């Protein structure tokens, strides 16, 4: 009987690893974002609503960068944010955040993607087998514009990075909803 017990194998689920990764992301995200938001709140003076909104957007994006290190999209997002901050820093050293923030590029891309896809649908009416390759290339171009740094990735890497980017965006939404519910 004891020999049979030794033959048993333990089966581990993939889910606990995913839960640990989500917990680490959430902890890192909260550890970066909450102090940054408190700093913004404490330093809030007679600033314009749009300026505060853009500063918060910048900090939310930076929290995403620091919480999801090791991905190509995270490195690209960090480079975009740093480049923007260097280009728009004032003489006093503080960032000047305006509505032209490049970290908003994903929402701009979504508008373009919808426009491009709708334009194709209205032009063709339906997808031909002859146009299937062009349609796939068009959809890949749209996906490349959604992910930071997607233009520099091969198709396989882009798909893998897109999967991680979407899962991190979902976790980001969950954290932000929690923070919004907690403060209301």
Tally of helical segments: 7
Secondary structure: number of strands:
0
Largest sheet: none
Helix content: over 70%
Spans of at least 5 consecutive residues with low confidence? 90-127
Count the domains. 1
Query: Over all CA atoms, what is the radius of gyration?
Result: 22 Å
How far apart the termini lie comes to 60 Å
What percentage of the residues does DSSP assign to strands (E)?
under 5%
Region (Disordered): 86-109
Organism: Arachis hypogaea
GO cellular component, one term: nucleus
InterPro entries: bHLH_AtIBH1-like, IBH1-like, IBH1_N
Descriptors for this entry?
single chain, 184 residues, mainly alpha
Overview of this protein structure:
There is one protein chain. With 184 residues, the protein is mainly alpha-helical. It has one domain (15-183). The protein contains 7 helices and no strands. The chain has helices at residues 2-7, 15-42, 49-67, 72-87, 105-124, 132-146, 155-183. Helix 2 runs antiparallel to helix 3 (49-67) and helix 2 packs across helix 7. The radius of gyration is 22 Å and the shape is globular. The chain starts with a helix and ends with a helix. 15% of the residues are buried. The model is unreliable at 90-127 (pLDDT under 50).
């Amino acid at each position: 009987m004891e020999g049979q017990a030794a033959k048993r194998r333990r089966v581990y689920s993939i889910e606990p690893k995913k839960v640990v990764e989500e917990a680490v992301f959430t902890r890192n995200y909260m550890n970066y974002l909450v102090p940054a938001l408190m700093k913004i709140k404490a330093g809030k003076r007679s600033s314009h609503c749009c300026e505060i909104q853009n500063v918060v957007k910048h900090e939310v994006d930076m929290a995403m960068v620091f919480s999801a290190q090791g991905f190509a999209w995270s490195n690209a997002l960090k480079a975009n944010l740093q480049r923007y901050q260097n280009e728009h820093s004032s003489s006093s050293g503080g960032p000047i955040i305006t509505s032209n923030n490049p970290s908003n590029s994903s929402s701009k891309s979504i508008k373009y993607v919808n426009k491009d896809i709708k334009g194709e649908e209205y032009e063709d009416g339906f997808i031909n087998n002859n146009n299937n390759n062009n349609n796939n290339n068009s959809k890949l171009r749209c996906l490349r514009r959604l992910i930071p740094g997607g233009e520099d990735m091969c198709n396989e890497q882009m798909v893998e990075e897109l999967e991680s980017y979407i899962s991190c965006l979902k976790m980001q939404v969950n954290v932000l909803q929690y923070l919004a519910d907690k403060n209301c």
